[in-house]
């Protein structure tokens, strides 16, 4: 059984530069509306910071990762943590949830209604992966190279 999620979490992507120029973190309740509200938080933060060259990619990945956290990783009454960090030439999006099960990229059938979220993240972000938290649960992260304009070329996953 998962413990309550707090905002105490280590940086998800150890292979990116360790100095975060800007960072913003918000805890969201597990609700049907959380993906939309979290997506708006990510867009507002990045727009405020002037990091809009990959905004559509980052908005899409935020929506997919938060939806996965709400649907699959967060029990009722628990929280989802969303963190946006801007580094020198990358934006790092992290979604933390108290669930123990790591997400797995699937190969859905054409007629399947769901199961495409991580396929979308994999084809949109430059890198993505899953990390353990210092507290309960996991962190699913996506990194975006700001030197690219538009949709990313896949560089692999962790």
Give your account of this protein's structure:
With 158 residues, this protein is of the alpha+beta class. The chain is 27% helix and 24% strand. It has 3 helices and 5 strands. It has helices at 34-49, 55-73, 117-124, and strands spanning 22-29, 79-86, 90-97, 127-132, 138-145. It has a 5-stranded antiparallel β-sheet, covered by helices on one side. A hairpin with a 5-residue loop joins strand 4 and strand 5. Helix 1 packs antiparallel against helix 2 (55-73) and helix 2 runs antiparallel to helix 3 (117-124). The model is unreliable at 9-17 and 151-158 (pLDDT under 50).
Element layout with pairings:
Layout: E1 22-29, H1 34-49, H2 55-73, E2 79-86, E3 90-97, H3 117-124, E4 127-132, E5 138-145
- Poorly predicted runs are 9-17, 151-158
Report the end-to-end length measured between terminal Cα atoms: 26 Å
Count of DSSP E strands? 5
Please provide the ordered H/E string of secondary-structure elements: EHHEEHEE
Largest sheet: number of strands, sense, barrel closure: 5 strands, antiparallel
Any idea what the radius of gyration is?
Answer: 14 Å
Q: Report strand %.
A: 15-25%
| Helicity level | 25-40%
Number of helical elements: 3
Shape: globular
- Give the strand order of the largest sheet, numbering strands 1, 2, ... along the chain: 1-2-3-5-4
Mean pLDDT, all residues: 80
Helix-strand makeup class = alpha+beta
Main attributes of the structure:
5 strands, single chain, 158 residues, 5-stranded antiparallel sheet, alpha+beta
């Amino acid at each position: 059984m998962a413990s309550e999620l707090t905002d105490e979490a280590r940086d998800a992507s150890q292979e990116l530069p360790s100095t975060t120029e800007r960072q913003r973190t918000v805890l969201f309740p597990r609700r049907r509306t959380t993906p939309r509200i979290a997506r708006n938080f990510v867009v507002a933060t990045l727009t405020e910071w002037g990091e809009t060259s990959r905004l559509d990619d980052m908005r899409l990945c935020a929506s997919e990762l938060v939806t996965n956290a709400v649907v699959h990783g967060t029990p009722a009454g628990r929280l989802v943590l969303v963190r946006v960090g801007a580094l020198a030439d990358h934006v790092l999006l992290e979604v933390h949830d108290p669930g123990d099960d790591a997400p797995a990229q699937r190969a859905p059938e054409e007629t399947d209604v769901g199961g495409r979220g991580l396929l979308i993240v994999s084809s949109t972000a430059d890198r993505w992966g899953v990390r353990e938290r210092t507290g309960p649960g996991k962190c699913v992260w996506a990194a975006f190279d700001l030197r690219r304009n538009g949709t990313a070329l896949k560089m692999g996953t962790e």
